Protein 1
Amino acid sequence: MLRFDVYRDGKLASQIDLTGAYIFGQDNIPVRADLAASNGQISCMKHAPGACGLALLWHAGSSGTFMLPTTRLPERGEPYNLNVEIARGQIMRLAQKREDWGLFDYVGAESLNKEFDEVRRKFARSLKPADPAEAAALADQALEQTVTLGEKAALFHADIFLTRRRAPAAAKATFGCEIDLAQTADNYRTRVREMCDFVSIPLPWKQIEPKERQYDYTAADNWIKWGVQHKKPIHSGPLLSFDPATVPEWLYIWENDFDSLRELVFEHASRIVQRYSKQVQVWNVVSGIHAHNAFNLNFEQLMELTRMTCLLVKKMAPRSQVMIELVLPWGEYYARNQRTIPPMLYADMAVQSGVKFDSFGLQMFMGVAMDGFCVRDFMQISALLDEFISLSKPVHVTACGVPSDITADPADAWEGKESIVRAGQWHAPWSQRLQAEWLQAFFRVSLSKPFVESLCWRDLSDTTPHYIPHGGLCHDPAEPKLACRELRNFRNNFLAGQRGPAPAAPAPSDEHP
């Protein structure tokens, strides 16, 4: 068992929120554990041997409230000081990324290195006091500075590579938004046309085949036709997803018959690809089956469905890009459900087992008090993207978003029932301005990775049923938020750099005609 004492304001905490908290082991893979908090202490009864760490939402002063992990720790009789261990974990990860990114001797990073030495010394002072409350107070000060410094380092590193990415000869990148199939208003489509290089058109099985053998392609047909008419590249899918929001009710009849389920998946994917193979450039073939396992399939069955569906699309649409989409990328869900697969393990298995696909998709959401949606700092975001380097596949950020308000939003995917405040915050409570600043920082970090080919915001508007609470770029298509303008400005500046400077006007001639 691991035990942690939690201190606030010089004494043991009277209340401890374990929203989203989990235990993780080697390679940051979550493990099953029973967590309990009482009398200022967290007890972690883990179901796996070996050293483990604890990740939980933690207030880091003016930097914000983030899901922050400790280092991996061995079991011992006396409790650990959680304040000290959270600060130790953050400093350790910053030291690792500073070396990975080559900032310790990079010209221009002298101030960052000086700050790092300062916070390391401040943390060292927190290890000396005999009074654990005093040690916790010093560790909290070091943590606040370390989180801020980690963000500075991530953005400094991002800007170096973003400058190179803006060069005309660099790999191109595109910007898009996932459309709402139910929206057909002219002002909505006008906004999409103005902002997007491509359109992401969802194909939820539940909507296309609400009853077995009864199909409704009307909404998808209309948007596919619109995309072709306006010469917008089309990203579409997923063809296979076990997210309860997209699975038709009648499919659960076959939850205990894998052979029949596999045949139904094959038939569904075949119909969709045959219908739209000439219009779609990027197929989101398999989405999130590593996390959403509604049919309680085992590892081999999930990988078989992945392999089968990707091969099918490769054969039927050889000119299109085949993509596997990862959701909930930190994998907290694996600590609750062992019939799922950690996201990076699933990605690595797809590569190593010879699945025929071209790229990965990645969803990145924050701002809902649920597993996978708690706020992370930008050093963690950048480090997560760096993990894709070893997979040698391009990456599309297929959906991202954060709130622009902290009030309940009854039109979101959870009908306003999930808290925004308890999911953490980035610097301050979410607002329009903070949403725009997060968008700009996230785009900078993402596009600094040369393997990221596209960025797609999830919700265009808040006026329709949408995913993240207050997560749209506009209140309605006619009333853009600050984030909408930020995206437009970022896109224009980035694409202008890739096009290169405008050709110089010819010098005036001294000769007269």
Protein 2
Amino acid sequence: MASFQDLGLREPLLRALEDEGLDRPTALQAAAIPVLRREGNLVARASSGAGRTLAYGLGVLDRLKPRAEPEGGGGEGDEGGETTPPGTRLLVLRPSGEDAARTALELVPYAHALDLTVAGSGGGWGTPAGQADVLVATPGEVLEAVRTSGVKLEGVEAVVVDGASEISALGGWEALETLFDHVPRDAQRVVVTAESSEGVEDLVSRRVKRAMRYPAEAALEDQAEEVAAAGIVGYVPVNERDKVNVAARLLGGGGDDAAPVLYCRTDERAAQVAEALALRGFAVGDADDPDVDVAVVGAHGEDDDEEGSAAGTAISFDVPPDEETLRARHSGEFTGFVLVEPRELAHLRQIAKRAGFQAQPAGIAGEEPSPSAAELRGYRGQLRRAIREEDLAAQMLILEPLFEDFTPIEVAAAASALLRRKAPPPPEPGAAPAPRVPRTTRAPAVGSVDAGPPPSAIARLFVSVGERDGVRASDLVGAIAGEADLPGSAIGKIDIRDTFSIVEVPSDAAERVIQSLNGTTMRGRALRVDYDRQRRTAGPGGPRREDR
């Protein structure tokens, strides 16, 4: 197996990796880092658990040089090196503020090793966002900072879109497209997405030229043909803080002839888990020791265990980073368990599919003997279909802050209670069916309000105020009606997002609305109104710009 040293990383980064207990790259990191070090572009389909933050973080940071300082203190007449002005050099765009803050913290040890500064979402960083070398935030936050001159993007050397499908689902696509217009054309481009979609592929085709794809599309097709019933791997969704308790419960059953094997991401983590289990009374040791209750294996011990799970039940304390690791750990008739954080579920399902495994929850409750059993079965069937068919990555990001205070089971139970409370009662026998509501391809964003039926020929307009500004649908209707002399009944759907709104108006009145509202003030903000470019490949200003 390759090491980080084999990838040619600079010595400060290698020392930082050693301090973090990491010396073996994941499959994604091994493929991506050499490409990014050579300033190549990358499009990767990967989720949390594949090591995606370090894949692009190490690859891009390795080629960023510290800001040069003039010799002799920079006084007049000095002939030292040229000073690089402060400003964003690596821009990382994440779907939510919580995700951005976590990603920024993951990058800190490696950026600091190279004397580079980091700032993340929501403030609270020693370096102001506009002066940090590495800025990690949501597209909406960055765009607002650019508009207020708090952040300048002229010096950006690399831009990373980490979580493209989730950004789209959470309403950040318009801001993302606008930011690409502010980034230098020769800046390095990286797009990481959990799910491929038409919108993501359209962005890549226009904005990310000559990019390496991971995994290779041909390889994916070949894998799909080779998938066979290799076994079932059970997974247990669990928060990081509860992992030791859950692992202890799994190990407490006993009954195996051989000691179970618990796999951890690093040797340091394995030592910590082993100590925690020893405090609970487990005899912890090596896999070949007949007197132990459990063998805890780290990054190096995994290489020595060529039999994988043959020694005993395999439990992945950390989700495997790729399908090769999954196969090596979990093989045989019973493939063991994986402890997986909710945000890592999409990754586990992807690598399980490529490895030929079926991933399913480790525990399934039986049916209750009650008169409502049929209704409950139908309800569970709806949830199962949603789990298989819906894009859950964005929903995980919405719910993830709750997992700090509640277990995923409690959050799911609360969401289920709200969902069932709002569900309409079943129709009475013989009653006329309810009118059918056409399905849309995407659920409306928070703050979405229908202000009347849309006209037959409509135009979608972008308005530069949103929920964060305290704007309501009635404010937009009143402004359009008053300034553009357009009756409120002629205005279609109003979609209020975080930092902007989308308004549907009759096509023949669109120019009048744009001219009338541009420059006016709402909630203390000067309005910018234009055609919604997310739905238009060409508008009054011409076709979209295509970048490197």
